[in-house]
Amino acid sequence: MTDNVSNNITFLKAVESDLSQRYIYYDSDDKHVRCLAHVINLAAQQVLTTFKATDNDESSNEEVGSLIVKLRTLIKKIKASPQQVDKFKAQCKVANVPNLNVILDVRTRWNSTYDMLIRARKLKEVSLLFY
Fold this sequence. Notes:
Blueprint: H1 6-21, H2 28-31, H3 36-50, H4 63-78, H5 82-94, H6 112-122, H7 124-130
Helix pairs in contact: 5-7
């Protein structure tokens, strides 16, 4: 099982060639199983790009994309320093919300944007006070 990079295909072709010289049948196309999590991540990243929810697109005008970009900006601001983290924790206490850390999504983890949005929803009251 591999991700979709071309060097994996090159490697499997080399294995096929080496085994065929030893008269062992090996079909590299048949044996190459792409990692489902990697494929899901590629699809999720494409959806985020379609919504214009990537960090390099500051001019996001799609509602969902704009929301995600603004949320990332807020989370980066909160995580920018220990003082900001302490301020956020204090706001959690004021809002009587469980002290949960904010989650910033990571491009290589297909479900991290979902995790970020779910956590942000739980901390909505606090983030309104903080921002």
